[in-house]
Amino acid sequence: MLTKRIVPCLDIKNGRTVKGVNFVDLRDAGDPVVLAKQYAELGADELVFLDISATLEGRKTMHDMVLKVAEQVNIPFTVGGGISSVEDVDDLLHCGADKVSINSSAIKRPELVNELSNKFGSQCVVVAIDAKQIDNKWIVHLAGGTIPTELNLFDWAKEVEQRGAGEILFTSMNNDGTKAGFANDALVKLANTVNIPIIASGGAGTVQHFVDTFKIGKADAALAASVFHFGEIEILELKKELRKQNIEVRL
């Protein structure tokens, strides 16, 4: 049985880790380099670093920050934000990233998924999908959740899998920052739609929410931010509880 992964997420804006609710009302959560080091030491399985304003500001990911984080961690490290070409990914991998996460750039030019998968391997390519449930339909959004598209979550997930994505990072915009639990109904439908790992994101508030997203949502990994940043859930204690619930995790 594959182990389930616990993944802290560092949303970066102006060089600081931030966290909001439903993608707005951001508040400071600390120095990303310090947090990354702590998480690697405290038992996180992977880290995700998202330069959340890079796309909106029309610039590339902050390479100096990626370098600093990579120096501090010994676990897989995914970087996203402002990535739009093979050259961008090449640069980030040289800075120490293990995987990259693309979102808006994949929607604007889906062939990018093929190009990255062909060049670096599907294991390197994570497609992040920010979707919002509107009138019982899950609508994909781009540019940090600010612009709705015509795309349906499940159709888009299937397409990026066929184009070579190795993993999907699905964030429910409805659940993001609410601490009311993950979007398990959408997650289980997603798990039945694609054959690649799914990282659940948006809504973690309690240990039970992680249990539920693995058991009910069939997620392969669970990503969270504020519950870890502000010390509400300790990763090691979380993993011990998951083990008690017969969910296989690395301790």
Plain-language structure description:
By secondary structure, this protein is an alpha/beta fold. The chain has one domain (5-244): Aldolase class I (TIM Barrel, Alpha-Beta Barrel). It is 35% helix and 28% strand. The chain is built from 10 helices and 12 strands. The protein has helices at 32-41, 63-72, 86-95, 104-108, 111-120, 153-163, 184-193, 207-215, 226-229, 235-244, and strands spanning 5-13, 16-21, 24-30, 47-51, 77-80, 99-102, 125-134, 137-142, 147-152, 167-172, 198-201, 221-224. Strands 1-4-5-6-7-10-11-12 form an 8-stranded parallel β-barrel, surrounded by 6 helices. The longest helix is centred in the middle third of the chain and has 11 residues, at 153-163. The protein starts with a strand and ends in a 7-residue tail after the last helix. The relative contact order is 0.16. Residues 21-25 have low confidence and may be disordered.
